[in-house]
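Every protein is a chain of amino acids, and every chain bends into a shape of its own. The protein below has been through that process, and both of its lines are reproduced in full.
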Amino acid sequence: MARVFVYGTLKKGQPNYKHMINTAKGLAKFQGRGRTVEKYPLVIAGKYNIPYMLNIPGTGHHVAGEIYSVDEQMLQFLDEFEGCPDMYQRTLMRIQVVEWEGKGGAGEARAAADGVLECFVYSTATYPPEWVGLPYHDSYDSSGKHGLSYVLRESR
């Protein structure tokens, strides 16, 4: 099992969460909520209003999201879904646990130094330079006050 941190459309209540609970694609078990230890720019970009975490550590905000434990099948699905390695790159990042629901309560999270876990995150280093000038968000909601509605793949 691997840990994955999701910050965009794959979170609970968001348009692509259905993939996280589709066991035909693999297993994903919600573990808790967290945020990036380092700051990153989270932007909503492109004609489909997709959330992207730009891989520019030290810029932007501590991005909020959810921590999942996933099996190899789900990890492979997520790589494909996220267009890895072209659109997004899957890299290890340090995630500060904010709320833990994993087995044993906060025990596993507490076992990590200061509640920090290493998780795979889909961020991007391959983006148009003008994206750096877009507004930075600390969390993503497809129907947030930004007014940029996400366009589902099946509607593109």
Observations:
- The chain has a mean pLDDT of 93.
- Strands lie at 2-6, 28-36, 42-45, 50-53, 64-70, 89-100, 116-123.
